[in-house]
């Protein structure tokens, strides 16, 4: 039987296979995602051309239309235009492993302050 916590879909933190949130945070800093995104506790991440990423872990959709699931998020990070033609977020030549770490980090962002 599954543990009860597994039933609480909405509030459960999503798991990314092979992703390490701590490494992901360092990568998000290194790749300067913050040039376009406001990201909590990433120094200097105060960009305005993309949506703020605080609370991202609670969103139902990535970029307003892609179901927010770990594998889709990894695919999004690897190649946004392939997932949403015409999007303003560019592909940044990440490896899949890097994208997995970043996805794990993004799912820890679960509070959206006003
Ligand atoms: C050149 C600016 C730019 C850079 C650099 C950039 N993004 Fe984005 N990002 C965007 C834009 C614009 C969107 C909105 C896309 C859309 O809705 O079509 C977006 C959307 C997203 C989303 C979905 C957010 C939501 O609320 O749905 C995530 C997650 C994301 N970016 C993560 C990252 C990460 C991680 C990096 C670094 C590897 C990064 N972005 C680098 C511009 C950028």
From TrEMBL:
Q: Which InterPro entries match?
A: Cyt_c-like_dom, Cyt_c-like_dom_sf
Domain (Cytochrome c): give its ranges.
19-110
User: Does the record's keyword annotation contain Heme?
Assistant: yes
Lineage, top-rank taxon, reads Bacteria
User: Which terms are listed as keywords in the entry?
Assistant: Heme, Iron, Metal-binding
> Which PROSITE patterns does the record match to this protein?
CYTC (PS51007)
Q: Which Pfam families match?
A: Cytochrom_C (PF00034)
Q: Which Gene3D superfamilies match?
A: Cytochrome c-like domain
Q: Does the keyword Ribosomal protein apply?
A: no
Task: Return the protein name.
Answer: C-type cytochrome
The source organism is Massilia aerilata
